[in-house]
Structures are given as structure tokens and as C-alpha cells.
Recover the amino acids of this structure.
């Protein structure tokens, strides 16, 4: 929803989380980053951004949040607003309130999604357009996952995870996300733990399985290269995955580099029953989002 009062315009926009239906790390690139092959899937768990702009002299930015630890100039929302304002030449006051619900540092992409929502919100409010190729460059400069959140739905990501190819939507599925309150995994640590295993993991048959999952609407089993090293250091995450499978999940895996774990269930009732097994953790019963529903929710249609 977009509102206007005199010169002030406001929009409320959702920033949805993601899971990785599979995540393969192929090796380290010459630029120091890792080469990835992953399939992103947007889910209905979301943060909410309230963005207001008021054109005027100079540039002023104000950020508030229900999570005070996220405030500061290194916040991805701040960086996204700054980047898009410079690109379109916007001058004036931008005020953002970030209502955080996606757990931080759990592999669900909340920070990247917030950044993409900020880009989209600013373009909606200013009615400016940025060519898609350039918008993708801006998004990728903020973080490798950010370009995906311009599209949503289900998508193949390669290179650093910033080169996105939309895939056919799968059937709507119920997802139970379990976020342990006392375990966090930094992406940097996860890659360091994984590095010694990369040679062993690089097998051709994994690529064929990955291709099958890309083009099958039903999927071909989920997998995540981070599970071995992360589970070995945090055995409780393996226990959560196994508990989800025991309680009826069709499949379960680590979310991104962790530490959240998700399971795929037949329906919300089954997922809610399974959620009772994790009283000490944050649990979310959500659903997958098609690309079309994702775009409608953000009031946004990606076009070249």
C-alpha cells in the first residue's frame, strides 16, 4: 500500500525469507568468493518495512527498528537506500521503520530481503525506473543473495549466488522453520569449516541430481553442503533435522549456512503438531511463495 500526504509519500512493504532447496559449493574462485549452485525458494515468513520519503534539499535518512541491534550505517537497508538514492538522484528525507521477524544469522536471508525491499520501496515511492541489468548490479553490490529477492518464487542461482535464473514454480508446500535460540552460525565461519571438504564433495553425480531438482516441479530431494561441517560443530541442529523427519516431514535440511532448520510437511496441521517438539526454539509454520504471489505482495513486477 502506498500513501501520499502533500509531498510526503509512504509505503509498507514485506521482505520475505528464503530457504535453499539445495546448496552446493563448487570451490573457491580466484576473487576469493565461492562458486555456488543453489536453488532459492521464497517463503511467507517476512519482515515489514515502512518507508516514507519527503523530497527536499540535501539527503537525510532515519532508521528505526524493533531490534535495536540492527541500527547503524552498516545496516543493509541503509546501504540500499543510499545506493538507490544516488542512482536516481533523489534528495530529501527517507524514514524507514524495520519490523523484524525473520531471525538474524539463521540462513534465511532476512538482511538481504530487507535490502531488496528497500530498493523496491524507493522505486515505487519515487516512480523512478532503473534498467533491470543495472538494478541487479546494485543489488549484487549489497550482498550475493539480494538479487534473488527482486524476483522471489523459485530460482536457480550460480556464481556467488548473485546470478539468478527463475525456475518453474513448484506446488505450494507447508514449511516448518525451527530457529534455535542459542545457536548462531556466521556465514564466514561456515565457509571456513566447509573448505577442507570441498574436494570430497565435488562429484559429477551431484550435478545431475542438482539438474533434476532444478527442472522438476515436484523436486528431487533437498541437500545442503554446509550440513556436514555445521552439524559436526552443532550436533543439536542434526537432532532438529532428524526430529522433523521423525515427525512426518517429507524432507528436512539446514537453511542456507544455518542455523535454522526447515522441514517440508503435507499440510499446516501436521506442521503445527511437529512444532510442539521444539518448545525452547522459535518456530514458524509458513508456506512457499510462487513468483507471481511474491510480486503481488510487494506491488512489484520485474521487467527489463
Amino acid at each position: 500500500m502506498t500513501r501520499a500526504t502533500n509531498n510526503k509519500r509512504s509505503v509498507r512493504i514485506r521482505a520475505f525469507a528464503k530457504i535453499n532447496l539445495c546448496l552446493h559449493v563448487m570451490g573457491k574462485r580466484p576473487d576469493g568468493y565461492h562458486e555456488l549452485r543453489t536453488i532459492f525458494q521464497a517463503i511467507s515468513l517476512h519482515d515489514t518495512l515502512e518507508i516514507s520519503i519527503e523530497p527536499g534539499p540535501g539527503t537525510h535518512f532515519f532508521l528505526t527498528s524493533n531490534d535495536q541491534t540492527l541500527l547503524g550505517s552498516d545496516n543493509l537497508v541503509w546501504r540500499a537506500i543510499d545506493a538507490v538514492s544516488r542512482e536516481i538522484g533523489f534528495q530529501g528525507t527517507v524514514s524507514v521503520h524495520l519490523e523484524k521477524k525473520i531471525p538474524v544469522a539463521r540462513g534465511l536471508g532476512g538482511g538481504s530481503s530487507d535490502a531488496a525491499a528497500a530498493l523496491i520501496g524507493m522505486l515505487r515511492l519515487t516512480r523512478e525506473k532503473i534498467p533491470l541489468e543495472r538494478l541487479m548490479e546494485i543489488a549484487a553490490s549489497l550482498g550475493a543473495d539480494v538479487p534473488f529477492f527482486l524476483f522471489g518464487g523459485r530460482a536457480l542461482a550460480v556464481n556467488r549466488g548473485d546470478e539468478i535464473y527463475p525456475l518453474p514454480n513448484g506446488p505450494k508446500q507447508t514449511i516448518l522453520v525451527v530457529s534455535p535460540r542459542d545457536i548462531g552460525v556466521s556465514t564466514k565461519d561456515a565457509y571456513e569449516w566447509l573448505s577442507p571438504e570441498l574436494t570430497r564433495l565435488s562429484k559429477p553425480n551431484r550435478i545431475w541430481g542438482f539438474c533434476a531438482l532444478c527442472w522438476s516441479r515436484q523436486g528431487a530431494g533437498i541437500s545442503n553442503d554446509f550440513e556436514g561441517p555445521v552439524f559436526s560443530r552443532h550436533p543439536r541442529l542434526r537432532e532438529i533435522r532428524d526430529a522433523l523427519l521423525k515427525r512426518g516431514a517429507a524432507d528436512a535440511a539446514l537453511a542456507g549456512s544455518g542455523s535454522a532448520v526447515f522441514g517440508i510437511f503435507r499440510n499446516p496441521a501436521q506442521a503445527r503438531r511437529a512444532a510442539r517438539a521444539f518448545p525452547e526454539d522459535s518456530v514458524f509454520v509458513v508456506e512457499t511463495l510462487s513468483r507471481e504471489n511474491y510480486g503481488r505482495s510487494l506491488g512489484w513486477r520485474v521487467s527489463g
